[in-house]
Amino acid sequence: GLNSPLPHKVLGMKKTGSKKYQQKNEGGFP
User: Fold this and answer.
1) Do 25 and 1 contact (CB within 8 A), yes or no?
2) Where is this region: Disordered (predicted)?
3) pLDDT confidence of residue 6
4) What letter would DSSP give residue 30?
5) Can you tell me the distance from the alpha carbon of 17 to that of 30, in angstroms, rounded to the nearest whole number?
6) Which of 2, 7, 16, 20 is the most buried (most CB within 10 A)?
7) Closest by alpha carbon to 28, among 5, 20, 14, 12?
8) What is residue 19's predicted lDDT score, i.e. its pLDDT?
9) Residue 4 CB: number of other CB atoms within 10 A?
Protein backbone atom coordinates (compact mmCIF):
# COMPACT_ATOMS: atom_id res chain seq x y z
CA GLY A 1 0.00 0.00 0.00
CA LEU A 2 0.95 3.64 0.39
CA ASN A 3 3.00 2.76 3.48
CA SER A 4 4.91 0.06 1.63
CA PRO A 5 8.52 0.78 0.67
CA LEU A 6 8.92 0.96 -3.10
CA PRO A 7 11.47 -1.92 -3.28
CA HIS A 8 9.10 -4.19 -1.35
CA LYS A 9 6.15 -3.11 -3.46
CA VAL A 10 7.99 -3.78 -6.72
CA LEU A 11 9.34 -7.08 -5.42
CA GLY A 12 5.83 -8.14 -4.43
CA MET A 13 4.41 -7.16 -7.81
CA LYS A 14 7.11 -9.16 -9.57
CA LYS A 15 6.54 -12.13 -7.27
CA THR A 16 2.77 -12.31 -7.64
CA GLY A 17 2.18 -10.36 -10.84
CA SER A 18 -1.34 -9.58 -9.68
CA LYS A 19 -3.35 -6.78 -8.07
CA LYS A 20 -4.44 -9.13 -5.30
CA TYR A 21 -1.03 -8.70 -3.68
CA GLN A 22 -1.37 -4.91 -3.65
CA GLN A 23 -4.91 -5.06 -2.27
CA LYS A 24 -3.91 -7.59 0.40
CA ASN A 25 -1.10 -5.33 1.61
CA GLU A 26 -2.95 -2.04 1.16
CA GLY A 27 -2.41 -1.36 4.87
CA GLY A 28 1.34 -1.36 4.35
CA PHE A 29 4.17 -3.69 5.27
CA PRO A 30 5.14 -4.30 8.93
Assistant:
1) yes
2) 1-30
3) 63
4) -
5) 21
6) 16
7) 5
8) 61
9) 17
